[in-house]
């Protein structure tokens, strides 16, 4: 028979605690990276991140209390809503660096593409769950691609290639977890290899420059400056680091955008290899608990939602740390929970709440 217990007894407090540790540590690191700032926007980063973290705490609880299957049933409305929001952003969004329209100003600045990640996970999981027995058909796989094509295109045209890649990775992991056939995987890999030479010339000049600088830093010394400073910061941190708030690469402002894209370099600089590995270990713990939730989910929808959230966190973490280590091109993706960014933090925590919703409703059978 099925055990009947309060959902809060099944709440994954280890996952919740690990998330809060990363969020709290992120606020401390943003405070270190923005100390002595004179720009109003930079000065507000710490209080803004703290406020979003407090809201995010309650969002996790609220999302856990809401049955994820109810959210799945609202998929058509959620999908239409995020497409409309992304379209409004594309047309009327606030321009940022390089003329990109990625934000809406509604009294506070929000980034709808961050909301879109969670909406995509819910709607794509529901879409596939309804067609779970039809995944052997190539036509079904193409329909799942069409599901993400419109929101992904609106984000790509902002332009935001990094988040577009997150969308594609989420799609790949969710459909793989649902049982994508090996022959279909081979077909898509072949298609990707053929498409890359076509896509590359269509990319924005600054996007191509990032890839070319990654391959050969001598082509653009100014573009390679921050990459080199990040490597210096990480290398000079040694085993135990320079100490919180006193790292010369940080306090001397040699490292640009150190509170967002390159915050991992600040961590490694001030806390050394030990600190960097500890942060990685915390992410491994978070991902392990999410994957455990996926394995124990009571239905395919819940399992795919967990895999989708894990894919989002894994991809952004890997790319963010990879570009700090000069193992990947700079994409602008931030380190989940840790980097400065209110909308990103809030909806990544919403993703944790969504996973908790699946976990607390997992099925336990007593023999």
List its salient traits.
3-stranded antiparallel sheet; 367 residues; 3 strands; globular; single chain
Q: How many individual helices?
A: 15
Q: Give the helix proportion (percent range).
A: 55-70%
Q: Spans with pLDDT under 50 lasting ≥5 residues?
A: none
N-to-C series of helices and strands: HHHHHEEEHHHHHHHHHH
Into which percentage range does the β-strand content fall?
A: under 5%
What does this structure look like?
There is one protein chain. The chain starts with 12 loop residues before the first helix and ends in a 7-residue tail after the last helix. Helices cover 68% and strands 2% of the residues. Strands 1-2-3 form a 3-stranded antiparallel sheet, covered by helices on one side. The protein has 367 residues and is mostly helical. It has one domain.
List the helices and strands and how they pair.
Blueprint: H1 13-33, H2 40-43, H3 45-65, H4 68-73, H5 75-92, E1 94-95, E2 101-105, E3 109-110, H6 112-129, H7 138-156, H8 161-177, H9 182-202, H10 205-215, H11 225-236, H12 248-251, H13 263-296, H14 300-324, H15 342-360
